[in-house]
Amino acid sequence: MEVSLIEQGIQLMFVGMGTVFIFLTILVFAMKLLFRLVTLIQPPVASADIADDELAAISAAINYFENDK
């Protein structure tokens, strides 16, 4: 018995969608694993000590660009 063109198209669609789903699932787990490895290797960065005048300059620059619209 010969398989119709529609059945072949549906079969190909499911194979393609399954392949993409499996690839994306593997990608998600790989990214989670990479995140855990990076956090184990590199400790969290401590906050930098910023002088008051530097903080004022940064705040003024942000305020200037936000109100420039």
Proportion of β residues?
A: under 5%
Query: How many domain modules?
Result: 1
Number of helices: 2
- CA radius of gyration is 26 Å
Annotation, overall tally of beta strands: 0
What is the general shape?
A: elongated
Major β-sheet profile = none
Mean pLDDT: 90
Order of helices and strands: HH
What structural class do you assign from the helix and strand content? mainly alpha
Helix content: over 70%
Unreliable spans are none
* Straight-line N-to-C gap: 68 Å
Walk me through the topology.
Blueprint: H1 5-41, H2 52-66
Note down, in words, how this protein is organized.
This protein has helices spanning 5-41, 52-66. By secondary structure, the protein is an all-alpha fold. The protein has one domain (5-66). The longest helix is centred in the middle third of the chain and has 37 residues, at 5-41. The chain is elongated, with a radius of gyration of 26 Å.
